[in-house]
Amino acid sequence: MNWKLAFLVALIAIPGPVAISWLALPLLIDIESLTIPLQTLQIATALQSIVLVVLASGIGALLSAKVGLRAPVLSALASGGGVRAAIGPQLLPGVIGGFLGAAVIIGFYEFSPSELAVLQEKGSIPFAARVLYGGITEEVLIRWGLMTILVWAGWRTLQRASAVPSDTIVWLGIGISALVFGVSHVPSVVAGLGGVSGMVVAYITFGNAIFGIIAGYLFWRYGLEAAISAHVLAHVLAYAIRG
Q: Can you tell me the mean pLDDT for 142-153?
């Protein structure tokens, strides 16, 4: 395993759990109904996410190169290579993905069911939490960790005789990880509303999965940094347009 790469990936992702626990969690739960101190819950939530970040960082560092997935900029930093040369190919795909992602986010809110509109009125997720957790941590967890292990598992299970996984296997990894990405947004909505209909669960899942497919493709074709750049830019643009 490339331990330096795993460390760098974890390093950029760890601020996200801290931001989401301290800035967003109080907005998503009924504080008055808590049976434990809010700070205790925040610490436990942050630690849980940090453990997952460390695991995802290690999985990606261990398996990504074996299935043709990469983090060019972070790998260059870890090896002392040409960082500037690694950044260039990430920029345009990241910008295009960011604009597509912003359109998905804005459309998601504009056409959301009335149940979600009620949640939006309660208060939005702070900008810093959106960027740090949504833009960076989620990409490390879902793309670098989950998508990588899905592609590796599909390759080793279904195509053991092949030197590299086929495009079909990679697309399966992209699709499944995108669905998991969508489902992962459901619990916070349930916590904020106290329960939702099946239609809302489907809307949240598939609405978020659309961007998951975009980010997964960027990770596959260009690298983790392209997916992160797109996700961060999507939140920046969406926040600038609709707040």
A: 98
